[in-house]
């Protein structure tokens, strides 16, 4: 289980490092709606994951994978825009990768219901 988290964290570190290296010559950077979206979607998904009652598991089974995919795309696009500040999309990417790890672990336990 920790292997999944370590792999996701390593991928995130490499993506952030590559994005910082790629945009190092740009002087004027700004924060756009894409940065806020890449941070807001994972926070909303964490709230959805922990605040929904157990009777609404169908929302979680559909909403978490779709929302995680949207947040991952937004974070990567915001990271690789040249004139975008990188802090907010980096935090959003790490939250998204934590959600990806949770979904992966949940999927492993969903398809292998027997105890180890």
TrEMBL record:
The chain crosses the membrane at residues 6-21, 33-52, 58-80, 87-111. It comes from Pontibacillus salipaludis. Keywords: Membrane, Transmembrane, Transmembrane helix. The keyword Transmembrane helix applies. This is Uncharacterized protein.
């Amino acid at each position: 289980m920790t292997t999944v988290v370590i792999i996701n964290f390593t991928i995130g570190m490499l993506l952030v490092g590559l994005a910082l290296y790629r945009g190092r010559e740009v002087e004027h950077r700004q924060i756009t709606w894409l940065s806020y979206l890449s941070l807001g979607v994972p926070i909303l998904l964490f709230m959805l994951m922990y605040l929904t009652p157990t009777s609404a598991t169908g929302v979680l089974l559909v909403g978490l994978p779709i929302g995680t995919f949207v947040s991952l795309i937004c974070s990567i696009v915001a990271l690789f825009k040249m004139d975008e500040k990188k802090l907010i999309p980096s935090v959003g990417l790490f939250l998204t990768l934590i959600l990806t790890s949770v979904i992966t672990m949940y999927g492993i336990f969903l398809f292998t219901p027997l105890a180890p």
